[in-house]
Specification:
Elements lengths: L15 E5 L2 E6 L9 E7 L3 H10 L4 E7 L2 E12 L2 E7 L16
Antiparallel strand pairs: 1-2, 2-3, 3-6, 4-5, 5-6
């Protein structure tokens, strides 16, 4: 029993959130954001984002996104073949936000 004292256990969970429009859908249950096509496991959030994405998928593929560092990465999802799995058909390269800092003009 004494050997457990002083050895704290630290669990770190990094949520790999993704969105449909401005609505959070869920988070990927993978070590990193998906960068390839195929089926990817995710945990849906209970809320309008997951509902709206699933509803929109009835009309065809949808565009979703995630923030990875400072970049926004978009992907095309074509279906949710089973609960907690999204079919990704295309992943677009990330775009960096525009630098809106003031431009210095003095030497």
């Amino acid at each position: 029993m004494g050997d457990r004292i002083g050895k704290p256990r630290i669990d770190v969970i990094m949520a790999l959130d993704f969105s449909f429009g401005d609505l959070a859908v869920g988070y990927f249950e993978e070590p990193a954001y998906p960068r390839n096509v195929g089926r990817h496991r995710y945990m849906p959030y209970r809320g309008p984002g997951h509902y709206e994405m699933a509803r929109a998928l009835t009309d065809g593929p949808v565009r979703c996104s995630f923030k990875d560092g400072g970049a926004t990465v978009e992907f095309i999802a074509s279906s949710v073949p089973e609960y907690g799995v999204v079919q990704i058909d295309q992943v677009f390269p990330g775009t960096q936000p525009a630098d809106l800092s003031p431009v210095r003009t003095d030497p």
